[in-house]
Structure to design on (91 residues):
């Protein structure tokens, strides 16, 4: 059985798609965010009023894709709504 491997451009596109999905969830919770970094590879999230900010990345894992954020946060990209709730509480 042959396993499909994504090239660099495809990985970047999948990463942006996952980060954009999380950005939509975060905005629905009142947080400001934008794609940043080389190739829009990082999601910059800003908390309301307090000026707090954190960065989220999406990375391939053995089982698919996961979001990672400071403080040891890690979750499957399929859990974007729950990730947005957790990040909102952090900010």
């Amino acid at each position: 059985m042959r396993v499909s491997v994504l090239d660099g451009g495809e990985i970047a596109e999948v990463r942006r798609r996952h980060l954009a999905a999380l950005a939509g969830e975060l905005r629905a919770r009142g947080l400001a965010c934008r794609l940043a970094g080389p190739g829009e590879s990082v999601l910059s999230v800003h908390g309301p009023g307090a000026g707090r900010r954190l960065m989220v990345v999406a990375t391939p894992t053995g089982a698919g894709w996961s979001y990672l954020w400071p403080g040891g946060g890690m979750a499957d990209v399929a859990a974007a709504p729950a990730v947005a709730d957790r990040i909102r509480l952090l900010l």
Q: What stands out?
A: The chain has a mean pLDDT of 90. Residues 47 and 91 are 5 Å apart (CA to CA).
